[in-house]
Amino acid sequence: MSTQDLPELLEANKRWAAKTEAREPGFFSRLLQQQTPQYLWIGCADSRVPANELVDLMPGELFVHRNVANVVVHSDLNCLSVMQFAVDHLKVKHIIVVGHSNCGGVRAALTDARVGLVSNWIRHVQDVRNDHQEWLDSLPEESRVNALCELNVLEQARNACQTTVVQDAWLRGQEIVVHGWVYGLHNGLLEDLQITAASQDDVAPAYRRALAAVKSRYA
């Protein structure tokens, strides 16, 4: 057998498909007809943060977009296209921006580490760092990465609220709620950072409350 083959993954897939069908007969036939997720997850590409598994949802129940350091920026047509499809066509009701503790991309942004092409991408996270540099410098060194991980979630969730996709949905009265969460690699738990916005009027006060809560936790 060629060393380029991956039989262990293909066999694992067969076992997973068989177990899924045994647990829910007809699951794949139903899935073939449509996908009706209520949630869009925008998370980090880190392999330790598997979106569906963390919230115990089956295929078809969670629409997912991932990139390094869970960044949402207005120039990223990939992310915006996912958001537009999720909101306009799938009619998701919740957009959840999810960061995680000890994020490598965030650590690189914090320390100005050169990591190749991705250094240009995490420049967006460095912007977050620069906005809060004085406060981050006041923290113990071991706390700064996780603090910036949380700040980054707040900023990217706010960015999601400011996209044309979400703004237009709110203007036409569509129900969309944006959330910001962080996942703890050390304990497997998700934490709601309380930047929750269901309208344009919610965004600024939700951001202020969530930012104050983050800074209070690290005080």
Automatic annotation (TrEMBL):
It comes from Roseateles violae. Belongs to the beta-class carbonic anhydrase family. It catalyses: hydrogencarbonate + H(+) = CO2 + H2O. The keyword Transport does not apply. The lineage of its organism: Bacteria, Pseudomonadati, Pseudomonadota, Betaproteobacteria, Burkholderiales. Reversible hydration of carbon dioxide. It comes from the Bacteria. Keywords: Lyase, Metal-binding, Zinc. It is an enzyme of class 4 (lyase). This is Carbonic anhydrase. Its cofactor is Zn(2+).
